[in-house]
Every structure is written in C-alpha cells, then in structure tokens.
Amino acid sequence: MIGIITALIVLVLLVVLFVGIYNALVRLRNQVDNAWSQIDVQLKRRHDLIPNLVETAKGYMTHERETFEKITEARSKAMGAHSVAEASKAEGQLTEALSKFMLVVENYPDLKANQNFLSLQETLTSTENKIAFARQGYNDQVLFYNNKIQMFPSNLVAGMFNFTKRDYFEIENEAERSVPQVKF
Questions:
Q1: Tens-digit pLDDT profile for the chain (184 aa)?
Q2: Domains of the chain
C-alpha cells in the first residue's frame, strides 16, 4: 500500500513538473512573439516615414534619382521580409541606403533648413532608437527562450512538442557594427 501511494505521489509530481515546464515554454515562446511584434510595429512606422522623407527631399535633390531608387528598393525588400533572418538582412540594407541618403542631404543646405524635412528626420531618428531598443528586448527574450529549450529537463518537453530555436535580430550591415570615428 505504501509503495502504491509513493508511486502515485511520484507520478503526480512528475505530471506537475511536466505541466509546469510546458507552460513555461509556451509563455516564453509567446514573449518572443510579442517582442518581435514590438519590433514589427517600429519597422512599420519606419517604412511609413521613408516615403514622406523622400518626397520632401525630391524637390531639392533633383540629381539624386539613384539614391531615391535604392531607398525605395530597400524599403520594398524590408516590407516583404517573412522571417527574422530576412528582416535582419533587409533592414540592414535599408539602414545603409538611408545612411547614404543622409550623407547626400548634407550637400543641400536649403533641404537641411526645411522644417518639414527636419521634423521627418527627427521622427525617423526617434524611430531608429525605438527599433534598437525593441531589438534588444527581442534578443533578450530569444536568449532566455533558447536557453530554456536547450537545458535539461525542459529540453525533453521542448523536443516532444517541437519548440524550436529562434533567430536573433542581428545587424547585417558591417558599417553599423564599427565604432564611428570622430575627427575635429
């Protein structure tokens, strides 16, 4: 009788442990998905700002057609990305195109003085900061989730229910990784 009671207690504890691990994995997976949706909101905001910025600049920058085309192409690729890896690569290309655009803007003092352009530029800068913050939050959630599905005993439950490793949202643009040089 004591053996049966002991076996039942052990079985109940194992079921509780199993359910607890499963629920923790589901919660973590949902947190990763939520963190990605926060990035997606900021990327959408960025994608919506770019056409306004370009249209404002077109009136001043009549000889920069190639620059505008590169931004438009990069924006289209970024909006069409379907996975984190695709989005990372496409957003890196878009960031590079925008950086080149901002360098070209320096050659147009009238544009730099335009209030509408300055407002759009400030909004874009703010959005870029929000994207960086959201990317950091997403990558933190991915790290925690990936650790959980790879560590014992939760890796057993993760394997049984196809909890798979998630990709980080990484910088693809090598220029963004480098430290800027300040020269006076």
A1: 899 999 999 999 999 999 999 999 999 999 999 999 999 999 999 999 999 999 888 888 877 888 889 999 999 999 999 999 999 999 999 999 999 998 888 888 888 888 889 999 999 999 999 999 999 999 999 999 999 999 999 999 999 999 999 999 987 655 555 444 444 3
A2: 31-141+150-171 (1.20.1440.20)
